[in-house]
Design a protein that fits this description.
This protein has about 575 residues and is an alpha+beta fold. It has 12 helices and 21 strands.
């Protein structure tokens, strides 16, 4: 089974076990990041208001919109200007910024970057440059409602062991627990072992997969109109031949951005860490690690129309996956997944099982006086129940998707937008303006069941795991009539099959079978045609970012996964 070394980004999530002092510092960092985000958001809004005033006066809008770097410069100037402000009288707003130095400076920069990115995505969505549903204007984060989180980075961010000499104050000398060293906060105990990550970080540097793996040490192809720095003509092939291993026929090369021409990259390095507080009160740290990992794929060069070639990775299935062949998977609410061979993956319905306990906890919460200790305890209990449901759902989805990816060579799934389906208020999916309104209670139960199933998360997990383990995942167009197409003769019905009908009956050929099995087999037939015509087809129309084919990885080795937009639609 061939494997290739690729540079990928992988997340490692650990639960933190902070001391009371460290918990206060974590909360301080989260509040500071929230303040910086709101500050940057207000700066962009002020610039937009100034542009509107200039247009209203009959002139041209000349006030520039601040970028991430502009926000960082303005933040530094603002905090230095007000660092020595006196304390205000009681009841007035404080302007002194001496507290800024108490937290890690990178957390402020990351929050300002998030604010600039939110406005950039909003403008791209309004102009049609961003795929997915229209986005609304970025909103301010409110304490108590927004999630407490902040980002850290740098050389000091690393996992350690107590035996290495890093021990929080008050810890036992014989303790051997793992910990994470956070900037400005120090070493914080972890709730589980980080031995695997520490081993990866200690490994020696490896050959760069982005340039050395393709036979072009230190150089990567560059397009003729590339805006990258230091673009030069390829000296290996004066005629810009397609078979050139350096430029792939483009005639232009540039320095490899992964290794910088040194031909070596770290086996693993921590890019950033995100610390967040869950609804149950626990603090978690998610480390984004860039590492060179073995992936079941083969390197191929696809010819292009301009005479060059494109570097891609195509999946290399194992013997077990080749034996499984192609499978269609129909995700649903009654059953989590129905396969084309008749296999059914049961839906555990964790939220439905805990609705009674959640209802009782919510009733207790509603009777507690705001601001009291009893209300804080009731809020914590509701949060723990929601966290329990979330963790059980995540565990079951990971087990189900891992089993599918390791068992089949190609998997075909539907590409409908779950959030768009949950917004329908009327019967008749084809034309939401026609038909009768669905009762509010029925609509609420339907949307809760859809959210509890996690269809979008399952599809995203299949895409990410399939790229690592040699399984090709095809996401069909969201308008494809797979649910009303007969898997025996291929005839599509004019109207969708009502969810109440359990059996699919074809009027053309007389085929009768369970509706979900028919949909899964229709997906399998579409996958066989797609694989026969072009092995790297399939896309999500209503998704953002990423390559058109999830199975064909870009030359950098990292799979830019497609994810459905999770923000609310534009009001009005």
């Amino acid at each position: 089974m061939p494997v290739e070394i690729q540079t990928i980004q992988q997340a490692y999530k650990f639960a933190l076990d902070p001391t009371p002092r460290q918990a206060r510092m974590l909360a301080s960092h989260a509040g500071a990041a929230r303040f910086a985000f709101n500050w940057g958001n207000a700066r962009v809004i002020a610039a937009l208001d100034a542009r509107e005033a200039e247009k209203a006066a009959g002139g041209e809008a000349k006030t520039p919109l601040p970028s991430h770097f502009d926000l960082c410069k303005a933040w530094t100037a603002w905090k230095d200007e007000h660092a020595a402000d006196p304390e205000p009288p009681e009841g007035e707003r404080r302007t002194n910024t001496a507290w800024v130095s108490e937290n890690f400076v990178g957390s402020y920069q990351a929050a300002l970057r998030d604010a600039a990115k939110a406005w950039s995505d909003f403008f791209k969505s309004r102009s049609g440059k961003r795929k997915g549903r229209p986005l609304g204007r970025p909103r301010f984060k409110k304490r108590g409602r927004a999630r407490d989180s902040f980002q850290v980075h740098g050389q000091t961010l690393r996992p350690e062991n107590c035996g290495a000499g890093f021990r929080p104050k008050g810890a036992d000398k014989g303790a051997t627990r793992d910990m994470i060293v956070l900037p400005k906060i120090g070493p914080v105990f972890l709730g589980e072992s980080a031995r695997k990550l520490r081993r990866w970080l200690r490994k020696p540097d490896v050959a760069c997969p982005d340039c050395c793996g393709w036979g072009s040490p230190g150089k990567v192809p560059a397009a003729a109109d590339s805006k990258a720095k230091a673009v030069a003509d390829c000296t290996a092939c004066p005629g810009a031949g397609r078979d050139c291993p350096v430029c792939d026929g483009s005639g232009k090369v540039r320095e490899c951005p992964a290794c910088g021409g040194s031909l070596r990259v770290p086996a693993a390095r921590i890019v950033r860490g995100t610390v967040a507080r869950e609804s149950d009160g626990r603090w978690l740290v998610s480390l984004t690690v860039q590492r060179a990992r073995e992936v079941r794929a083969v390197r191929v060069k696809t010819p292009l129309k301009n005479g060059g070639t494109a570097r891609e990775y195509q999946p290399s299935p194992s013997a077990r996956q080749r034996k499984g062949g192609i499978a269609g998977v129909d995700f649903g609410v009654r059953d989590l997944a129905t396969l084309s061979d008749g296999t059914v993956v049961a839906n555990p319905r964790h939220l439905e099982g805990d609705l009674g306990r959640l209802a009782r906890a919510q009733r207790v919460l509603s009777r507690r006086e705001p601001g009291s200790k009893g209300r804080r305890e009731a809020v914590a209990r509701v949060g723990r129940l929601h966290a329990r449901v979330r963790h059980l759902r995540s565990d079951s989805l990971h087990k189900a998707t891992s089993g599918l990816v390791h068992a089949y060579e190609t998997i075909a799934v539907e590409g409908f937008d779950v959030q768009e389906t949950a917004r329908y208020r009327r019967r008749g999916k084809a034309d939401p303006k026609k038909g009768k309104d669905v009762p509010a209670r029925v609509r609420a139960d339907r949307n809760r069941a859809l959210a509890d199933t996690g269809i979008g998360t399952s599809r995203w997990q299949l895409l990410s795991k399939g790229a690592w383990y040699g399984c090709q995942v095809l996401v069909m167009d969201k308008h494809a009539p797979t649910g009303r197409t007969c898997s025996a003769c291929g005839t599509a019905k004019a109207k969708p099959v009502p969810p109440a009908e359990e059996m699919f009956t074809c009027q053309a050929c007389g085929n009768v079978m369970p509706r979900r099995v028919n949909t899964a087999r229709a997906l399998e037939l579409r996958a066989r045609k797609a694989v026969h015509v072009a092995p790297s087809t399939g896309e999500t129309v209503n998704a953002r970012g990423g390559a058109v084919s999830p199975a064909a990885v870009t030359g950098s080795g990292q799979v830019p996964l497609k994810r459905e937009a999770s923000t609310r639609p534009r009001p009005g």
